[in-house]
Amino acid sequence: MSQEKDEFFMRRALALAEESAKEGEVPVGAVVVRDGEIIAGGRNRRESGKNALCHAELEAIGGACAKLGGWRLGQCDLYVTLEPCPMCAGAAINARIRRVVFGAFDRKSGSCGSVINLFSLPYSYRPQASGGVLERECADLLTSFFQKLREKEKRDRERLSRSREDGG
């Protein structure tokens, strides 16, 4: 697929990531594309769902399976704003996703090349992976989110400390 098309679909995933950020979730968004059309989207909902499985990629893959009526997504591409973790890379393998395109690299748990490349292991199916699409925008959204979160936590600690000093 062309860089222009990759950027178009990554912008759709970014819009979903921004929705997650507004709800206090880590801003990661994903879309599944088949024949140039978005068939499903997902975003992080781990905090609101209180569930470690509520990753953007899993929501998007689950939606695509439901829409297409099956688990084999071999004609589909997954666009996600952050390099998939081991669980999500495994889901892409198991769903037979043709191609995974991601924005920001994840040096802590990225499983498409940063920490490990699960797609290079001798599984019976191996998606193609492309990273760095709109990398700056994807990384900036995550950086801004975590910076605001740290600032809020600092303000909360200061408020609690003042409350204790006041005898409250």
Q: State the helix count.
A: 5
Helicity, as a percent range: 40-55%
Shape: elongated
**Sequence stretches where pLDDT stays below 50 over 5 or more residues:** none
Query: What fraction strand?
Result: 15-25%
Largest sheet: 5 strands, mixed
Kindly, what is the distance between the CA atoms of the first and last residues, rounded to a whole number of angstroms? 60 Å
Structural class: alpha/beta
Cross-sheet strand order for the largest sheet: 2-1-3-4-5
Average pLDDT rating: 94
How many β strands by DSSP? 5
The helix-strand sequence is: HEEHHEHEEH
Plain-language structure description:
The protein is of the alpha/beta class and 168 residues long. 46% of the residues lie in helices and 17% in strands. It is built from five helices and five strands; from the N terminus they run H-E-E-H-H-E-H-E-E-H. Helix 1 runs parallel beside helix 5 (135-165).
Could you give the topology of this structure?
Blueprint: H1 3-22, E1 29-34, E2 37-43, H2 46-49, H3 56-68, E3 76-82, H4 86-94, E4 99-104, E5 128-130, H5 135-165
Parallel strand pairs: 3-4, 4-5
Antiparallel strand pairs: 1-2, 1-3
Helix pairs in contact: 1-5
List keywords for this structure.
46% helix, alpha/beta, 168 residues
Question: What is shown here, in short?
Answer:
The chain is an alpha/beta fold and 168 residues long.
